[in-house]
Amino acid sequence: MNAASVYASQQKLQQNEKIAQHLPLVKRIALHLLARLPSTVELDDLQQSGLLGLLSAVRSFSPDQGASFETYAGIRIKGAMLDELRKLSWAPRSINEKARRLSSAVREVEARNGGQASDQDIAGELGLSMNDYHQLLNETASCQLVLLEDTPEDDLPGREEGPEALMQDERFKAALTATIDTLPEKEKLMMALYYQEDLNLKEIGEILEVSESRVSQIHSQALTRIRAKMVDWT
Description:
The structure is a single chain. This protein has 234 residues and is mostly helical. The protein has 2 domains: 1-90, RNA polymerase sigma factor, region 2, helix turn helix motif (Rna Polymerase Sigma Factor, Chain: A), CATH 1.10.1740; 93-234, Butyryl-CoA Dehydrogenase, subunit A, domain 3. Helices cover 73% and strands 0% of the residues. α5 crosses α12. The longest helix has 21 residues, at 93-113. The chain starts with a helix and ends in a 5-residue tail after the last helix. Residues 151-163 have low confidence and may be disordered.
């Protein structure tokens, strides 16, 4: 066996070891997403698409890109899962329409009142009882997931962009950060625990001392407010 063959064999072995080592990362990300998706989405499907993202990360990662492999792989894995979800069109058109109605109601109430819209205000604007309003939040929670979960390919370390694309991305991030800062305190805390601390709904419920289903409603309400205020970006 010549030197080139030996090197190729060693590279293949190292890649396989890295894949095996990071399979738990694929499952962890899949479970995190699955908690916010309809029951029709299967864990195995998410893991399969995530594995493709992991394979891509193993083949393309370079230490010179300025991030650890786990960080880089996490972006690739989650991106592959979200790409697959978009292809499957898992959110029915009716659910997307309901999400738009929610966002529109928030904008109408806040424009009229000049302040934060309460659950009661939004339910009243939609002509719904509180029970029906909370059910609507539960129904639309999954279709709003991509708004904050989605990580553009342009965010990958080492990816070069033109100045206009970079400026647009920075404007979006600044607008998103400013919008999150305007959320009611409980919703702001929920977003930080879920997206920054990577806690699941059950863990967040224990911290907020509410049920897991109520955490889901708070999450959906927060995303509805964000979507309403960032209508020019969504």
